[in-house]
Amino acid sequence: MIAQPQDKYRRFKPIELSDRQWPNKVISQPPVWMSTDLRDGNQALIDPMSVETKLRFFKALVAMGFKEIEVGFPSASETDFNVVRRLIEENLIPDDVTIEVLTQAREDLIERTVKSLKGARRAILHMYNPTAPDFREIVYRTDKAGVRGIAEQGTRWVKQYTAQQPETEWVYQYSPEAFSSTELEFAKEVCDAVSAIWQPTPAQKMIFNLPATVEMSTPNTYADQIEWMHRNLNNRDAIVLSVHPHNDRGTAVAAAELAVMAGADRVEGCLFGNGERTGNVCLVTLALNLYSQGIHPGLDFSNIDQIRQLVESCTNLPVHPRHPYAGELVFTAFSGSHQDAIKKGFAAQTAKSLWNIPYLPLDPADLGRSYDAVVRVNSQSGKGGVSFLLQQQAGFELPRRLQIEFSKIVQLVSDETSKEINASAIYQLFDEAYLQVNQPYTFRSSKVNDDNEERVTADISLQHNGHQLTLSGQGNGPLDAAAVALSHHLGEAITVVDYHEHGIGSGSDAMAVCYVELKVGQGNPVFGVGQDKNISRAAIKALLNGINRVLQ
Ligand SMILES: CC(=O)SCCNC(=O)CCNC(=O)[C@H](O)C(C)(C)COP(=O)(O)OP(=O)(O)OC[C@H]1O[C@@H](n2cnc3c(N)ncnc32)[C@H](O)[C@@H]1OP(=O)(O)O
Ligand SMILES: CC(C)C(=O)C(=O)O
Ligand SMILES: [Mg+2]
Predict the structure, then answer these.
(1) How far apart are CA 397 and CA 392, in angstroms?
(2) What is the rounded CA–CA span in Å between residue 38 and residue 58?
(3) How many CA atoms lie within 13 A of 393 on its CB side?
(4) CATH, domain range 441-551
(5) What fold is seen in the domain 29-315?
(6) 176 membership: H or E segment, kind and range
(7) Where is Mg(2+) annotated to bind (predicted)?
(8) Burial class (CB in 10 A: 0-12, 13-18, 19+), 80
């Protein structure tokens, strides 16, 4: 029998921090970002990146604005060692960018790591060892003193070997790996022991990176852990407090945001949340969450599609179509009520107003994405989406009742096919249903005489059943006169219920479009649409198309 969860799993104990401050804090500036795409992201790939791929990725990270980039684990492989050498020897590291490398707390590995950085102007040397009880007991078979000793000895080796390359400005970063499941007092004890050896100062700080190596709890608990460390670490003003959330529970973004509220200065993560298991925290999401709150994150994602393609090609992993901000479908509305609200939002938006479009927390244009994909029509869509696409595609601004009438035509097709209908297909349906209605009466020409301001005469030349017809009528305007002419011919009253017109295009290409809602006899109202360079002809064509639709 499958075990009950309460018999199999342990609940994570809440942190005792009754005077926690973070819930009242607001993030008002971005943290220092550190991309670990080339290290934590890379170590989690099925096929790790080649030297060339890493260099391509590095250049892209620099272009995005990252100032700290972890480029690998140089003591682990020749590839990673060579990446560091190429970056240094080929002068690929801009002056305001610092590379970071990771090592275990083992002398041979530290020695080789330091060697890989020969000639670097500035470098962050990142050493880790796990501190949590399960690692102490299961992996290292040692006690707290043993684990603390590994961190202390490792730090001494880092001090010793980096001192041999004084031309480099060294920044030391220490991570108590599995911090999220380490007793807080013990995490502090290890970190304080490390800083006592390294001796950071406010002018030359060191970095303590507190990883949720495995995400163990709700994000508020991680925030409590970070606030506790922020308040209790020795020598806090000489420390850059960094966080490194993984996404095992799917709440890494929330954990990172609450951790920043709790006192973290710096966040490590990967683009689109790549990384071990369920990934590292997604830096794109974090940065754009800030952007949408009116805070510039200091990272440039203004061409998000290009960045997504680069990351997909370097990692060989797809970005989910619903990934926040970056997924192919995240700015797309298929459903009717969403489309209606978005259409109204665009109409209400002015150049000066703050962004306020329902369902779109961020302007797709800020990420280099077009509005074309914002509204897409399938069987879940309504009149708002259909008319929005028709307007975008061909400039028609349908009156409300025509929107309702036409969307039923589109709905019929989408129900039959169970497929999306794109803008050009919608235009084609509109053209067939409203503009190319040439039977039984085909328009040939019309002449309007409005010399007399009160009585306008319309002469309309038509084709009907292979015969040429010329009809004439008088009314208070061209449309009224044409309606009179056609009423006489058909022997039925033609009533114009509603009339709209607008122009499409400009200059010599400008077209007038008329929408006429009419009734033939006692029948139901229907719409006719006419398009012509001449507004009177457009109105007469609209009337005739409407009558044709009734007669068909
Ligand atoms: C949470 C993280 O992401 S941590 C980073 C993880 N990333 C990687 O491991 C990628 C690169 N690593 C590697 O390629 C390899 O681990 C290497 C080449 C660095 C080392 O390989 P190996 O020498 O075979 O050692 P391995 O990684 O298996 O580690 C096991 C040994 O190192 C010790 N060890 C592991 N981590 C650490 C550490 N951080 N500090 C000190 N010792 C450590 C273990 O206790 C074990 O010791 P034992 O052999 O005496 O039992
Ligand atoms: C090396 C450390 C920081 C790490 O990647 C982790 O704990 O997740
Ligand atoms: Mg990690």
Answers:
(1) 9
(2) 8
(3) 21
(4) 3.30.160.270
(5) TIM Barrel (3.20.20)
(6) strand 169-177
(7) 40, 244, 246, 280
(8) buried
ipTM for the whole complex: 0.97
Atom 22 (ligand 1): residue with closest C-alpha?
Answer: 76
For residue 93, the tally of other CB atoms under 10 A from its CB is 20
Q: Which residues pair with 212 in a beta bridge?
A: 245
- Name the amino acid, one letter, at 218: T
> How far is the centre of ligand 2, averaged over its atoms, from the C-alpha of 455 (Å)?
86
Where are the CATH 3.20.20.70 domain residues in the chain? Answer: 29-315
CA 41 to chain centroid: 20
Taking 70 as the pLDDT cut, the residues of the chain under it are 1
For residue 413 the two structure tokens come to: 């097709």
pLDDT tens digits for 309-344? 999 999 999 999 999 999 999 999 988 899 889 989
Q: What 3-state class would DSSP assign to 184?
A: helix
Residue 112: CB within 6 Å of ligand 1? no
Note the pTM of the prediction, 2 decimals: 0.87
Is residue 241 a contact partner of residue 248, using CB atoms and an 8 Å limit? no
Burial class (CB in 10 A: 0-12, 13-18, 19+), 466: exposed
Protein fold of 383-435: Arc Repressor Mutant (1.10.1220)
